[in-house]
């Protein structure tokens, strides 16, 4: 069990540090560009994640005063359920109106063709007698 843990723990720590580094905004990576930190984490997979957690990421608010959670709140798109989204409901109404207009045009064309067919049949019957 300890033998497996010796390989699993550094691997898990490397994966976690890699994902954390990728999700960190560029201005919160300390000392080196974010791309350099990615290479350090992946190349030195035992020491790299520890160095990233110790020295690579700002753990306090940057000089601008915003915290990472505020940044994520401001840049996250707000998801709204379709039945609560007025734009979506309006688009359904507009689409329904278009479909009804097409249906009315189609029915009018069908009636016109039926009337023409009836006139031809009635005209043809008169010629036979």
In percent, how helical is the residue content?
over 70%
**Computed Rg:** 34 Å
Low-confidence stretches: none
Instruction: Provide the succession of SSEs.
Output: HHHHH
Total number of β-strand segments?
A: 0
Query: Per DSSP, what share of the residues sits in E-state strands of 2 or more residues?
Result: under 5%
Largest sheet: none
Indicate how many domains the architecture comprises: 2
* Distance linking N and C termini: 103 Å
Which class do the helix and strand fractions yield? Answer: mainly alpha
Please state the average pLDDT score. 81
Give me the number of helical elements: 5
Shape: rod-shaped
Region (Disordered): 60-86
Domain Cardiolipin synthase N-terminal: 12-56
Membrane topology: Multi-pass membrane protein
Keywords: Cell membrane, Coiled coil, Membrane, Transmembrane, Transmembrane helix
